[in-house]
Write a structure and sequence with these properties.
Helix content: 10-25%
Shape: extended
Largest sheet: 3 strands, antiparallel
Order of helices and strands: EEEHH
Number of domains: 1
Number of helices: 2
Length: 88
């Protein structure tokens, strides 16, 4: 799993096992939901058993321009990939 932080070129790579758990299993965990509305609730979570973690080279992210606002706008107006045909 690679964790990305918008606007930041460094990433953290985590190797291990992950399990999807039901929201009721999170009753004892303090949850933080960014800007929740009155209907917000947690339905599922990910339980990570981390075997190793390390920072990942940011070079690829710099070359990809992943957080570049101009590149994002360009890709929205002129998608780099063809649109999927219905039913495919």
């Amino acid at each position: 799993m690679i964790f990305l932080i918008p606007g930041h070129n460094q990433t953290v790579r985590v190797n291990g096992k992950v399990k999807v758990i039901d929201g009721s299993a999170l009753d004892d965990v303090k949850l933080e939901v960014h800007d929740p509305d009155e209907k917000a609730k947690v339905l599922q979570g990910l339980l990570l058993d981390v075997e190793e973690s390390y920072s990942h080279c940011p070079r690829t992210l710099r070359f990809s321009k992943l957080w570049d606002v101009e590149e994002i706008s360009k890709n929205l107006s002129e998608p780099p990939l063809p649109a999927k045909e219905p039913g495919i």
